[in-house]
Each structure stands twice: as structure tokens, then as C-alpha cells.
């Protein structure tokens, strides 16, 4: 008899509740095709209940002292640390990434939780005394109300932890919609957040697809939405939610380039390029999917291929170098793009389409794949492959390499490998990309700074953490005050705008 699988719950008003939905989706281990659980596509009524719960909770939560909110996140980061191994195993089972990478996923989110615990220092207003006769002016940063987050499959721990801790720490309440492909680790993190002391209604969770996303975009009680995911969905969310009067930040797709100059430390550059291209099976928006080899650096291709060949592909729980892709559909898409690259004339230096993993015949595996001879009009260059595929372009000068990157519509991240300070400075100044690495392959900033992808990779002005997120999750209120003593109050009436 077929064994029943558990169902993923909704979180509404502090209670984990079973959905009444008639639509459910299986959560599948991408290494084995085992069904781990099933997740509901929440009903319209369930989304409404989650938002209503958050709206009710906001009335008291916004008045909760900053120190009290901070102490919850101090406790929360402790609980995440204590459950790190458990969380990583759960993440690996449903998402596929290696155990080491899963811990990295959680840790980068944990850094934001730690920052949330001290966010009060960034929520300070401004004050000026006696700006006019007896008039003082000051500002306060007040929370917006109910906020929402829509998160992707590739970082089911880190990106939810980018969102709800910052929103809640600044006094808002939150409705989270995790990826329906791998929500289990997200829900375990939510359980720990409640254990840390987040009150009922302050954090709510609904699951679903397009209908739930649209409901979040349209709901009049949701004031701000943070999104991370594909450019197609992110563009839809940004325009639909903006038309509904909401603040929106969308971190979307990318085509990240690394320039490799011939003066770079060869061994370090090749190691970092290999790790950044193929780590997480290429399923990250900051993956280095294009390397622009300048001058004699093009002779390094055989060495790069050799390093990529040495990487071990396997089930995430066995802690190889890279695990499977998230789904059968993802594997088919990546393989199809590799086929298209061959058809368009690129040279397939390393082919990962037929990789075999002992003991896992049904896994969604694609091994490291490298194309040389790539041109900018090819599909493998123009599309975000989101798999372990590296495209190599060759040019003669740094200026040509910079021009290629600046002509690409995306602007999430870029890097240069060089030992020349002059070349690095020219690159930093001339490149039109939001996040720049100098001998750093994946330049995602720590939470003291903001995530600053640009151009086609981001819609909205403000980043999801760091100083910028305070402006996103708060409204600046300016107060101008004057206090009169009894003698001053008997002055004459003024009909002009001047305060003097």
C-alpha cells in the first residue's frame, strides 16, 4: 500500500493549519524522485485570512519597543545555529544542493537575522532645533503595515531570511509565500521564529502559484512586496503591485560575467571561476555563467576544463561538489540549451548532459559543461541557463570585455581577475553593473551593505537588506513643532506661510 506523505501547513494567526484547497503539488527529492510531502495552493479565503491576521497584529506590533523586537531576533539566531544540521539536511532533501552548500545557504540568511537584531540603530530619525523662531523639526521612521515576500526555489532558507526578519524587526507584520517547489525548510525556519517569540499574526505563511501571487499583488491591505525570482515573474509582480499602489522591490534574473586578464593569478582565478560557475549546480542568480578571457588568458581553457572535470556530481546528502537540478523540467531545459549551443556553432569543451551517478538513476543530474567560441547572439549567451553551464568568450582588450558586459541587459553581478590595480580601478569605474567583485567571483555583500543589483536584474530602487531596506520598510514622517508660553500665545494672527 502506498504510504501517505505529510502535508505542508499554512501559518495563520500563529497557528499551523491544514489548507482546504483542492489543488496540491508534490514536493520531490530531485536526486531520487521520492515524494517528500505535498503542498497546497492556498485558497483565496486563506490568503485573505493571512492578510487579515497580519493587519490585526500590526496594531500592537508597531508599538512594541525596538528592544523587545531585537531580543526576539537574538533568540532566533541562536535557534537557527542550534538546528543548523537539521535545517541543512531538510534543505538538501527537497532542493538538491549539497549539505555544505545548504549550510552556506542558511548561514547567509543567519547573517541577516543577526543584523535584524541590531536594526534599531538604522531606524533613527533626524532632529533640528530652532529651525525658525521657536520651531523644532524632527523625523521618525515608522513601519508601513502588512508587507509580503515571494521567494524562489534556489535559496529556500537564505532569501526568506532576507525578508521577514527585516520587515518584522522594523515594526511591520508579514505574509510570506515560499516557493512551492521546496517550502519545507522555510516552514521549519518559521517554526523556529515562532519559538523565538514572534507573536501570533506578525508572521503568516501561504503557499501557492500564480493565483496566490496575484492575490498578494492586488490586496489593498498589503503595503509592500519583496520578490526574488525570474525576470518574467518579477516584471509581472512589479508592474501589477505598483499599479495597486504598493512599494515593490524585485531581484530578478542575471547573466553574470567575469573578466579574466592574463596577469591574474592563474590557479586562484581558475579555482574561483570553477566554483562560481558550477556551485549549486549553477542555480543561483549570482552564478558566474560567462567568462570573458582577455588576450593570452584564452590559452587557459584546457586547465579550466580539467578543473571542471574533477568536480564530483551526486546526491546532495553525499556532499559532492554539485547536486541535481531542482526538477526534471529544469534538467530538460538545461540539456535543450546545451543542444542549442552546439547547433549554433559553439564548441562544447565539456559535456555534462549524460552524467551518471551511481545509485541515483532517476536524479536530475547535469554535470559541469563548458562552451568556448561563444558569441553574444547565441541563445546560450542571451538566456539565463540556470544550470552548470559556463560560456567562454575571447577578446583582445579589457575595453572590449567591459563593452560586452555593459551591452548585456542584466546587471546583477560581475567580477574581474587581475593583479593590476590600474585595471581593477578602470573596471570598477567603467562597468555598469550593480555589484562588482575584484578577485571575488560572487560579490554578494554582507548585511552591513545592501544588495545592489541593477538594470534588468532589479526593479525598484532599494535593496532587500542593509541600510536601504530600512527606507523600504518604513515611512518617514516629518514633525514640525512649536510650543508657546502664555505671553507668546497672545501674539497677532499671521496669514503668510512663514514660520518666523
From TrEMBL:
Coiled coil: none annotated. The gene is mmsA. InterPro entries: Ald_DH/histidinol_DH, Ald_DH_C, Ald_DH_CS_CYS, Ald_DH_N, Aldehyde_DH_dom, MeMal-semiAld_DH. One of its GO terms (molecular function) is methylmalonate-semialdehyde dehydrogenase (acylating, NAD) activity. Residues 16-479 form the Aldehyde dehydrogenase domain. It comes from the Bacteria. It comes from Aquitalea palustris. Its EC number is 1.2.1.27. The keyword Lipid biosynthesis does not apply. CDD domains: ALDH_F6_MMSDH. SUPFAM superfamilies: ALDH-like. Keywords: NAD, Oxidoreductase. The lineage of its organism: Bacteria, Pseudomonadati, Pseudomonadota, Betaproteobacteria, Neisseriales. PANTHER family: MALONATE-SEMIALDEHYDE DEHYDROGENASE, METHYLMALONATE-SEMIALDEHYDE DEHYDROGENASE [ACYLATING], MITOCHONDRIAL. Pfam families: Aldedh (PF00171). Belongs to the aldehyde dehydrogenase family. PROSITE patterns: ALDEHYDE_DEHYDR_CYS (PS00070). GO terms for biological process: L-valine catabolic process; thymine catabolic process. This is methylmalonate-semialdehyde dehydrogenase (CoA acylating). Transmembrane segments: none annotated. It is an enzyme of class 1 (oxidoreductase).
Amino acid at each position: 500500500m502506498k504510504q501517505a506523505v505529510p502535508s505542508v501547513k499554512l501559518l495563520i494567526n500563529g497557528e499551523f493549519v491544514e489548507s482546504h484547497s483542492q489543488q496540491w503539488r508534490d514536493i520531490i527529492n530531485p536526486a531520487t524522485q521520492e515524494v517528500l510531502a505535498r503542498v497546497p495552493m492556498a485558497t483565496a479565503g486563506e490568503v485573505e485570512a493571512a492578510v487579515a491576521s497580519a493587519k490585526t497584529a500590526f496594531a500592537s506590533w508597531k508599538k512594541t519597543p525596538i528592544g523587545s523586537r531585537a531580543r526576539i531576533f537574538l533568540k532566533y539566531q541562536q535557534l537557527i545555529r542550534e538546528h543548523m544540521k537539521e535545517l541543512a539536511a531538510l534543505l538538501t532533501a527537497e532542493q538538491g544542493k549539497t549539505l555544505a552548500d545548504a549550510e552556506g545557504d542558511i548561514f547567509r540568511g543567519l547573517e541577516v537575522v543577526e543584523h535584524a537584531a541590531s536594526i534599531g540603530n538604522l531606524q533613527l530619525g533626524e532632529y533640528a532645533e530652532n529651525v525658525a523662531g521657536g520651531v523644532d523639526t524632527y523625523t521618525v521612521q515608522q513601519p508601513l503595515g502588512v508587507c509580503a515576500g515571494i521567494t524562489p526555489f534556489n535559496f529556500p532558507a537564505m532569501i526568506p531570511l532576507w525578508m521577514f526578519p527585516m520587515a518584522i524587526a522594523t515594526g511591520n507584520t508579514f505574509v510570506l509565500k515560499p516557493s512551492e517547489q521546496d517550502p519545507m525548510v522555510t516552514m521549519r525556519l518559521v517554526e523556529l521564529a515562532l519559538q523565538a517569540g514572534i507573536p501570533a499574526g506578525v508572521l503568516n505563511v501561504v503557499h501557492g502559484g500564480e493565483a496566490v501571487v496575484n492575490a498578494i499583488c492586488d490586496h489593498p491591505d498589503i503595503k509592500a512586496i519583496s520578490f526574488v525570482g525570474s525576470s518574467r515573474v518579477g516584471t509581472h509582480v512589479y508592474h501589477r503591485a505598483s499599479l495597486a499602489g504598493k512599494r515593490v522591490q524585485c531581484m530578478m534574473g542575471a547573466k553574470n560575467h567575469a573578466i579574466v586578464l592574463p596577469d591574474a593569478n592563474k590557479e586562484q582565478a581558475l579555482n574561483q571561476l570553477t566554483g562560481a560557475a558550477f556551485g549549486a549546480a549553477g542555480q543561483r542568480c549570482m552564478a558566474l555563467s560567462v567568462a570573458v578571457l582577455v588576450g593570452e588568458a584564452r590559452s587557459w581553457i584546457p586547465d579550466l576544463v580539467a578543473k571542471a572535470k574533477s568536480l564530483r556530481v551526486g546526491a546532495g546528502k553525499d556532499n559532492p561538489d554539485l547536486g541535481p537540478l531542482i526538477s526534471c523540467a529544469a534538467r530538460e531545459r538545461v540539456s535543450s540549451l546545451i543542444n542549442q549551443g552546439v547547433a549554433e556553432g559553439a564548441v562544447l569543451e565539456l559535456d555534462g548532459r549524460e552524467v551518471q551517478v551511481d545509485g541515483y538513476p532517476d536524479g536530475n543530474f547535469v554535470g559541469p559543461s563548458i562552451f568556448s567560441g561563444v558569441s553574444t547572439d547565441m541563445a546560450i549567451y542571451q538566456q539565463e541557463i540556470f544550470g552548470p553551464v559556463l560560456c567562454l568568450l575571447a577578446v583582445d582588450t579589457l575595453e572590449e570585455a567591459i563593452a560586452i558586459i555593459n551591452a548585456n541587459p542584466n546587471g546583477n553581478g560581475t567580477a574581474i581577475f587581475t593583479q593590476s590595480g590600474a585595471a581593477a580601478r578602470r573596471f570598477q569605474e567603467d562597468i555598469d553593473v550593480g555589484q562588482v567583485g575584484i578577485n571575488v567571483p560572487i560579490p554578494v555583500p554582507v548585511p552591513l551593505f545592501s544588495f545592489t543589483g541593477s538594470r534588468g536584474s532589479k526593479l525598484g530602487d532599494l535593496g532587500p537588506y542593509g541600510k536601504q531596506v530600512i527606507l523600504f520598510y518604513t515611512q518617514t514622517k516629518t514633525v514640525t513643532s512649536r510650543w508657546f508660553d502664555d505671553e507668546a500665545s497672545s501674539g497677532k494672527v499671521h496669514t503668510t506661510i512663514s514660520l518666523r
